[in-house]
Amino acid sequence: MESVVSQLEGTLLKDSDAFSYFMLVAFEASGLVRFALLLALWPVIRLLDMVGMDDASLKLMIFVAVAGVPKSEIESVARAVLPKFYMDDLDMDKWKVFISYEKRIVVTKTPKIMVEMFVKEHLHADEVVGTQLSFNRFDLATGFLHADSTNTISQRVANLLNNGAPTLVMDQSHPPDLTGQNYEHQLLRPLPVIFHDGRLVKRPTPSTSLLILLWIPVGIVLAIIRIAIGSILPFWAIPYMSWLFGGKVIVKGKPPLPPSGGNAGVLFVCTHRTLMDPVVLSSVLLRKIPAVTYSISRLSEILSPIPTVRLTRTRHVDAEKIKRELSKGDLVVCPEGTTCREPFLLRFSALFAELTDRIVPVAMNYRVGFFHATTARGWKGLDPIFFFMNPRPVYEVTFLNQLPVEATCSSGKSPHDVANYVQRILAATLGFECTNFTRKDKYRVLAGNDGTVSPTFSLMDHMVKVVRTFIQ
């Protein structure tokens, strides 16, 4: 059996420095204080690398990033946060060489718990050889490596190959020959990262991390101003004031006129990118349009400048609520049921197609610089605050034509056919890919087999727990 052994850092991943991934663990599993502490130690870490003390540098990064952090939190970050950033740094040419062998082993200097899921599930590796973190009896990381990690890499690889030699070794000193290759697995691709979590948009390299830390105080003030503007000013003034404070909304297509003469309202069917989708839509239409919601926090409802209609996920109850709201006027619904950050659309719930034929698809998309506006970990009440903390949040709103009668249930089409059709035309507008994944699939991927998402231990979330107690 032909086998390959490849280094992860600097080979399968373009960047040989693992510092930014430890910064991600520090921020997402622990909080801002540990994130800042690890960044402050970066000059020491870099100096150790320069004088050839790579082992001491690695141990220092590991200790600062994970000491005292629950094992479940490290696993959660490794499952829900790190794969996205690893995938962005993947060297596809070297991966194609790697995947062309039958037995595939990855060697990494990063603790195995951080990379194993990504390497096996996304890169199709068979085995991972890495250091092992030590945990105490309370399942808290000690910050030190397990004694078994003292075995040499070559010994552990030899054991996996039954004391045989690999056909190919790939590392920085043995780069693979990428010319004239006939790959046996040309049709095989890395498993894409569709669902991921965490607040940070960019991989926190030292310079990016410093910029984030310097921006956070400014961002908090800016978020407070932006939220206050949205809550106080009339809707016609919001676009002008948003531009003044760095926000931007790009509108394409022709929105329908508001209902008149006692006619039932239009149902705006939107893609779901962030919590702000219905709010941005209302600001574009210059009128407050109610939005149906499932699981937003009470604080988000309080801060929302538009009415919200909380659904129950009980089909007949929700159907009656939506019908009642449509009889009053326009309504916004996001049939994906949850947000997705990547260029994919989740499967649309067909309920909306059963309730009205006046359906206007709206393609929503957004761009942010520092922070994601939605998260499955931590407190969802911070979602709008993180969105408005970005320097220049940009939204794109594209109105499609109202569905013709022959494309609705009135012509005899099933609700599922209508929902799938709307999903396809919205995906085509955005250049996205349709999937059959649902909200349950998202949380199963992010949370693991038990389907529950553990709360994050970030400092910001701790700070708002007291406020949350009074709000609820």
Automatic annotation (TrEMBL):
Membrane topology: Multi-pass membrane protein
Domain of life of the native organism: Eukaryota
Subcellular location, record wording: Membrane
Keywords: Acyltransferase, Membrane, Transferase, Transmembrane, Transmembrane helix
Domain Phospholipid/glycerol acyltransferase intervals: 266-367
Lineage: Eukaryota, Viridiplantae, Streptophyta, Embryophyta, Tracheophyta
The name this protein goes by in its record: Phospholipid/glycerol acyltransferase domain-containing protein
InterPro entries attached to this UniProt entry: HAD_RAM2/GPAT1-8, Plipid/glycerol_acylTrfase
GO biological process: cutin biosynthetic process
Family label: Belongs to the GPAT/DAPAT family.
GO molecular function, one term: glycerol-3-phosphate 2-O-acyltransferase activity
Gene Ontology CC: membrane
Taxonomic source organism: Vigna angularis var. angularis
Annotated TM spans: 20-45, 209-229
